[in-house]
Amino acid sequence: MLAIHNLYKQFGNLIAVNDLSLTVNKGKTVVLMGPSGCGKSTTIRAINRLVEPDRGSIILNGANILSMQPDELRDIRKRIGFVFQHFNLIGRLTTAENVMLGLVMSGMDKELARAKAVEALDKVGLEQHLGHKPSELSGGQQQRVGIARALAYEPELMLWDEPTASLDPILVREVLIVMEELARYRASTMLVVTHELPFALRVADEIVLMDQGSIVEVGAPAQVFVKPVSDIGKKYKELIE
Ligand code: ADP
Ligand code: MG
């Protein structure tokens, strides 16, 4: 479904992503891990062109995202759900309105947008909170609104960039449960950047380890965390033991 080929991005003299190639098959969950600053966000943000790479190709269902014109890009972004570390909800809007907003802005009829929002909020277990403001929700619930906002588009690909990184440990769990549900039971296609090792072990079909802009290891969790070949893989193995 997604094929990244020789992706390269330099910021000044710094090579953030160095000829990286990666594929994600339909219905699979690929977890991208590696030390801070190794290029994970740059890679994942390039997929919907929040970062403009210097070269390479990113093919989603046969179309190269990196050669798309603005109107094509607008359409493709609706088909890619993106969940960030900071959920950036709008404080004066309710939960349902936060989820509806993008749909309505992109031209969807308000009633249909509301129905889609309710359905998405139901998937993340927030059907009881449609009328609440973000300030009335916990951090975990707010991030679940962020997830619903992405799900409302019924995206063919979900990208997650450290979705639990700004939550305190007690709230991390409820977000991981929602993510696991999406991966397992709804067969979403997901590329996830996370440091949550137990989640990665349980849920990933494939682990991709990065170091200094390059992929250093790819494999099933049982392979990467049990018989790692890379230095980074060996460090993760020690963390698990
Ligand atoms: P990660 O998500 O793995 O922590 P990033 O992709 O955010 O890593 O960053 C990779 C490298 O690129 C880091 O050294 C970071 O400082 C640098 N970098 C990222 N974004 C920018 C930017 N907009 N301008 C300059 N340097 C950047
Ligand atoms: Mg990052």
TrEMBL record:
It holds the Pfam family ABC_tran. It comes from the Bacteria. One of its GO terms (cellular component) is plasma membrane. Its EC number is 3.6.3.-. InterPro entries: AAA+_ATPase (IPR003593), ABC_transporter-like_ATP-bd (IPR003439), ABC_transporter-like_CS (IPR017871), MetN_ABC_transporter-like (IPR050086), P-loop_NTPase (IPR027417). It is a peripheral membrane protein. Its main location: membrane. Keywords: ATP-binding, Cell membrane, Hydrolase, Membrane, Nucleotide-binding, Transport. SMART domains: AAA. Signal peptide: none annotated. It is found in: Cell membrane. One of its GO terms (molecular function) is ATP binding. Residues 2-237 form the ABC transporter domain. Belongs to the ABC transporter superfamily. This is L-cystine import ATP-binding protein TcyN.
